[in-house]
Amino acid sequence: LVNSLKGNVIGVGSIVDRSDGKVNFEVPFKSVVSLYVETYEKEECPLCKEGIPLVKPGSRKF
C-alpha cells in the first residue's frame, strides 16, 4: 500500500514474529520476540481432524 502511494518503506516492526525470522519484507525487520509457530493446511490440522473448534485469542474487539 505504501509503495503504491509513492511512499518509501524504510523498515517493518512487530511485537511478535511468528515466522521465527523466516519472513522477508525486503526492508529491515525488527520484532520484540521471534517464535516458531507450527502451521497446518486445513486438511492436515490435528485439531480439525479431532473436531476441536478453533479459537482466535487476542484483542480484536476494541
Could you explain the architecture of this structure?
With 62 residues, the chain is mainly beta. It has one domain (3-49). It has one helix at residues 46-49; strands at 12-17, 29-34. A two-stranded parallel sheet has the order 1-2. The radius of gyration is 16 Å and the shape is elongated.
User: What does the average pLDDT come to?
Assistant: 88
Termini gap? 24 Å
- Strand order, largest beta sheet: 1-2
Radius of gyration from CA coordinates: 16 Å
Tally of contiguous helical segments = 1
H-E order: EEH
Task: Report the portion of residues in β strands.
Answer: 15-25%
Shape by Cα distribution: elongated
Please indicate the count of domains. 1
- The number of distinct β-strands equals 2
Which runs of at least 5 residues are low in confidence (pLDDT < 50)? none
Task: Explain the layout of strands and helices.
Blueprint: E1 12-17, E2 29-34, H1 46-49
Parallel strand pairs: 1-2
